[in-house]
Specification:
It is a single chain. With 259 residues, the protein is α/β, with parallel strands linked by helices. The protein has eight helices and nine strands. α6 links the parallel β6 and β7. α5 runs parallel beside α6 and α7 crosses α8. The longest helix has 16 residues. The radius of gyration is 19 Å and the shape is globular.
Length: 259
């Protein structure tokens, strides 16, 4: 799959984050967590696409740990939000961000956001707390559609975030954004992603969703017990298992349930 063409100055500016590598010389104990995760241990220069890059793999493969470290190294709050969010509900992130060497574009993104499905509730709460304190001019929630994120379902609040807060020419780091989204809403996310990519935005996404990772021209890294490898969409386990199931669900269920 080829990467989408990007014209003019955007072609030279993108990707905003070009690659990451592990600062091996700074690690005292390579066998300690998180350096013992194969995908982290083998991190010698992971390159990112100008548009969309996916990190995929089984639970425990390290994709969320790596994504979190990338976000924190870029200046985002570990629990999510923009670079202006500084709340800390529970300090549970690893120290990996301090051991990453980031290669960036000469041009900085004008916008950015780190979305963590598991802690987006805390982001929504912090927005309400800041608006109650006042002193920031226009209420912050106006940038998110004007309706409390707590008064919407998770899926609705995620879409409100992408439609209203993501302004383009940005770097967006998303951890399992499909967690609260129906298949139809995942298609809506793909549509919004495409609008933003065409507006010089870059996405780095950890996901299990075969719908999201079908984005044309995306770079896909499979994380497993050997490290990480770039794979084609059609070669992912997510695509193959979903395709086989939908082609013959009765047969798949029979094989699954047989003693």
């Amino acid at each position: 799959m080829t990467e989408p063409m990007v014209e003019g100055t955007a072609q030279r500016a993108l990707p905003y984050l070009r690659s990451i590598a592990l600062k091996r010389e700074a690690i005292e104990n390579p066998e300690s967590y998180p350096f013992n995760i194969p995908a982290v241990r083998e991190l010698d220069g992971m390159e990112f696409a100008p548009g969309v890059t996916f990190l995929i793999g089984e639970n425990g493969s390290g994709k969320s740990t790596l994504l979190e470290a990338i976000a924190v190294a870029l200046g985002f709050n570990a629990e999510g939000g923009t670079r202006n969010f500084g709340f800390n509900t529970r300090a549970s992130h690893s120290l990996l961000h301090g051991y990453l060497r980031l290669v960036k574009s000469y041009k900085r993104p004008q916008d950015g956001f780190f979305l963590r499905a598991e802690s987006f509730f805390n982001v929504a709460t912090n927005i309400e707390e800041l608006d109650q304190e006042g002193g920031f001019g226009m209420p912050i929630i106006h940038s998110y559609g004007g309706v409390s994120l707590h008064e919407q379902s998770h899926g609705e609040s995620f879409l409100a975030l992408m439609v209203n807060r993501f302004g383009g020419k940005g770097l967006y780091v998303l951890d399992e954004p499909e967690a609260a989204l129906s298949p139809t809403r995942q298609l809506a996310v793909l549509d919004r992603m495409h609008q933003l990519v065409r507006d010089d935005s870059q996405f780095i996404i950890a996901t299990h969703s075969p719908i999201l990772m079908a984005y044309p021209g995306a770079r896909i890294y499979w994380l497993d017990g050997t490290g990480y490898n770039q794979v084609r969409y059609e070669d992912t386990e997510h695509y193959e298992v979903t395709r086989r199931f939908l082609e013959n669900p009765e047969r798949m269920l029979r094989m699954l349930f047989e003693p």
